[in-house]
From TrEMBL:
<dbReference type="Pfam" id="PF10212">
    <property type="entry name" value="PPP1R21_helical"/>
</dbReference>
<keyword id="KW-0694">RNA-binding</keyword>
<dbReference type="GO" id="GO:0005769">
    <property type="term" value="C:early endosome"/>
</dbReference>
<dbReference type="Pfam" id="PF10205">
    <property type="entry name" value="KLRAQ"/>
</dbReference>
<dbReference type="GO" id="GO:0003723">
    <property type="term" value="F:RNA binding"/>
</dbReference>
<feature type="region of interest" description="Disordered">
    <location>
        <begin position="84"/>
        <end position="104"/>
    </location>
</feature>
<dbReference type="InterPro" id="IPR040024">
    <property type="entry name" value="PPP1R21"/>
</dbReference>
<feature type="domain" description="Protein phosphatase 1 regulatory subunit 21 N-terminal">
    <location>
        <begin position="11"/>
        <end position="112"/>
    </location>
</feature>
<protein>
    <recommendedName>
        <fullName>Protein phosphatase 1 regulatory subunit 21</fullName>
    </recommendedName>
</protein>
<keyword id="KW-0175">Coiled coil</keyword>
<feature type="coiled-coil region">
    <location>
        <begin position="3"/>
        <end position="72"/>
    </location>
</feature>
<dbReference type="InterPro" id="IPR019343">
    <property type="entry name" value="PPP1R21_N"/>
</dbReference>
<dbReference type="Pfam" id="PF21636">
    <property type="entry name" value="PPP1R21_C"/>
</dbReference>
<feature type="coiled-coil region">
    <location>
        <begin position="137"/>
        <end position="196"/>
    </location>
</feature>
<keyword id="KW-0967">Endosome</keyword>
<dbReference type="InterPro" id="IPR019348">
    <property type="entry name" value="PPP1R21_six_helix"/>
</dbReference>
<feature type="coiled-coil region">
    <location>
        <begin position="560"/>
        <end position="594"/>
    </location>
</feature>
Amino acid sequence: MASTELQGKYQKLAQEYSKLRAQNQVLKKGVVDEQANSAALKEQLKMKDQSLRKLQQEMDSLTFRNLQLAKRVELLQDELALSEPRGKKNKKSGDSSSQLSQEQKSVFDEDLQKKIEENERLHIQFFEADEQHKHVEAELRSRLAALETEAAQHQAVVDGLTRKYMETIEKLQNDKAKLEVKSQALEKEAKDCRLRTEECQLQLKNLHEDLSGRLEESLSIINEKVPFNDTKYSQYNALNVPPHNRRHQLKMRDIAGQALAFVQDLVTALLNFHTYTEQRIQIFPVDSAIDTISPLNQKFSQYLHENASYVRPLEEGMLHLFESITEDTVTVLETTVKLKTFSEHLTSYICFLRKILPYQLKSLEEECESSLCTSALRARNLELSQDMRKMVAVFEKLQTYVALLALPSTQPDGLLRTNYSSVLTNVGAALHGFHDVMKDISKHYSQKAAIEHELPTATQKLVTTNDCILSSVVALTSGAGKMASFFSNNADYFIASLSYGPRAGAASRFVSPPAAACMLQYKKRAAAYMRALRKPLPESVPYEEALADRQVLLSSTESRAGLAQQVQQSLEKISKLEQEKEHWMLEAQLAKIKLEKENQRIADKLRSPSGGQLAGLAQDNAAMVNRAGQDAAATKAAVEPAQSTSLVPDVDSREDLIKNHYMARVVELTSQLQLADSKSVHFYAECRALSKRLALAEKSKETLTEEMKLASQNISRLQDELTTTKRSYEDQLSMMSDHLCSMNETLSKQREEIDTLKLAGKGNSKKNKSR
């Protein structure tokens, strides 16, 4: 991660460096162009200076010539003034001289005219030179102003670049510090990840071995126990119990409950509609209380009186269908057997509607033929007759699709599984059509009732009956709308739930209703078997305690080799103790033999007259030896000395005490020796574990030192790159500052030259003006 960020930073720096190089080249080119322009301007200034000096010299020569000519004119004028009085005196004698003076005067006039023209031409040249000088001066001033603005812009660019470079340097230093911190954190994460990967690899290896073993075991069990694959054939696959989807069952039960509520509302509205229609026939157009109604209406009333026997079964069939959908069943079209019963009840109701439709149409025609019927009422009756035909047609269409949906539970070949979705879509369309027809009936019947209420012969009983019929029609309309919207909202779920069935195989569907029934029986048996197998789980170790035990087990210092060595050493000790036990048992047997011999010898002595005194001593010796033979270790540290009742002196009792003391001491020393051996083995195991830990720590230390070296090398390399980039930026800045200084110097020189030219031009103009 850090390396990618550093590479990104280096790429950005390289891009900025390339941009700066390009800007530097542009600046160099601009400086070179300005230098060339300044050199050209210098040459132009030199040429102008030379031409100006030539003009100055010409002006000086011309002024000198003009002065000479002016003096000569003055002299000539003086001579002419002097010659005029003389001419008056010598008019007669001076005709010839007057002719000469006129000739000279004409010559002088011509010469003077030429000098005047030449002076005028020189004045024109001087004016043109002055105008050209002013124009050049204006161009140079504008050029100077442009160069000053460019220099200011370049200086601003240089200042911005220096500021930007300083900010980038500071930013890079901060980024470097952050990257160093991040690199350290990433190194720690990398170490943790390495440890985790090692653990995961071990776990993966163990899992792979475990899963491979399980796979082999399961394959062997399948090969041995499974005779065939029952999901390959649809007949066998249909008998498999599908996975229990409790959510699906609860959803289907909820939907069936909503549908039952809608059907109950619809049944109530239909009962009211037929009953109030029967009452209306008894009232209008002829009241049965006043006069007899027509035979047609009598028959129609008789049929309408039987409506409950056809409408009530619809509610009962839907109720049975709702009760058949439980949490433990599998609800698909193949298992909903009660849908067939509902379809039959709906068929019987359709037959009832077909039976009463002609009578209803004839009754409406009879109303139209009555004298009380107006044209508007007749039009409403015709519209209602059309609406009744549409209602019967919609019910027939709905019954057809419901019968198709009931086929999979009775005749699996009657409806293909691919047509389930289209049938459900058509059911929704039929319900919407039923809602539209009921809206038309409600609209037309409300208009008919309003017209009848305006008749003069309309009774209160007729008005009440019409209101009841209209309320039942409104209830039918709202019920049909709710049912249509309900089915449209759940149509997608119905279509998606068709795939719910047995396990996926060659043909994932129920083949026949008997197969579905068998599957449900198998499901019940499987549920009963699982309940029978369910037993209270034994108490397990708490999770926190198990984690603590696992940590203790993992952090234990005793390795497997140490434990094996301890077991080996304990086995060697046991073998040594067994050998010592056998040795002491042999010693005990020898001691018994010696005791028997001693007792025999004492018995022989007892036969002598002094044997009665030694009887107690023999008994005490026998008891002591028997106790020593029963316990090879000579017993415990707290063995009390046997109180001697014999007649032997205190020397024997003292020997017994000494013997018991040393035996207890030997037992204590052996126990201490065993304890020291166990502690030494434990310490040895701990030392081995610590040595292993030390070796692992040294290895990790070596790896860490290598990583630290690499990190320090990377840091030094980054520092070198940073210093090189910094130096390059400083060199570029110094070069740019040098160029700017040189440009400022050239500009200052140009300004000085322009100032000198201005002063020279002003002096020349003053001289010309004075001249």
